[in-house]
């Protein structure tokens, strides 16, 4: 979710950003829905017929796979958890 989502409250137009864990959850839900219920579309994406889309999906999954558990742990324990390879910490 790159930009804020517009909504109206009591006739006033507002915008609001979605938090990163919610954005990751929404993205994974949309992907899983596409895989299950829109199999023809998903087949064209996986086979590379939709130019560039699979690269974006792979980036989204890689970022979400890394970020989502950390954000959940951070919110559960009120601490900042950080994981990395040993070479990164040196």
Number of domains: 1
Unreliable parts: none
- In what order do the strands lie side by side in the largest sheet? 1-2
Q: The biggest beta sheet, please?
A: 2 strands, antiparallel
Query: Beta-sheet strand percentage?
Result: 5-15%
Gross morphology is flat
Fraction in helix: 55-70%
The count of strands amounts to 2
Task: Compute the separation of the termini in Å.
Answer: 34 Å
Order of helix and strand elements from N to C terminus: EEHHHH
Radius of gyration equals 17 Å
How large is the count of helical segments? 4
Mean pLDDT: 83
Class computed from helices, strands and strand pairing = mainly alpha
Could you explain the architecture of this structure?
- The chain has helices at residues 20-37, 39-46, 53-77, 86-89, and strands at residues 5-9, 12-16.
- The protein is mainly alpha-helical and 90 residues long.
- It has one domain (20-89).
- Strand 1 and strand 2 form a beta hairpin.
